[in-house]
């Protein structure tokens, strides 16, 4: 296997371990809103949002070159 695939698999496994250990409900306070949700959902939303922002940033910087 390629090193890139191995690194991605290790990161996915580490992410799944982190998700399995964070199952309790937490409150998110954002300005005037308060949302209670499982930490699994919160971590997944933040991770997906980070990937989307990183992808969009890389696409915008490629167009400028």
Short description:
Strands 1-2 form a two-stranded antiparallel ribbon. 69% of the residues lie in helices and 18% in strands. 0% of the residues are buried.
How would you describe what is shown here?
69% of the residues lie in helices and 18% in strands. The protein has a two-stranded antiparallel ribbon. The protein starts with a helix and ends with a helix. It has 65 residues and is an alpha+beta fold. It has a domain at 39-65.
Question: What's the oligomerization state?
Answer: single chain
Total count of helical runs of at least 4 residues: 2
How confident overall, as mean pLDDT?
87
Secondary-structure element order, as H and E?
Answer: HEEH
Query: Nearest-angstrom radius of gyration?
Result: 16 Å
Distance between the termini: 32 Å
Low-confidence stretches: none
Query: How would a crystallographer describe the biggest sheet?
Result: 2 strands, antiparallel
Helix/strand-derived class? alpha+beta
Question: In percent, how much strand structure appears in the residues?
Answer: 15-25%
Cross-sheet strand order for the largest sheet: 1-2
Total beta-strand segments: 2
Descriptive key words:
65 residues; alpha+beta; two-stranded antiparallel ribbon; 2 strands; 18% strand
Topology:
Blueprint: H1 3-21, E1 25-30, E2 33-38, H2 39-64
Antiparallel strand pairs: 1-2
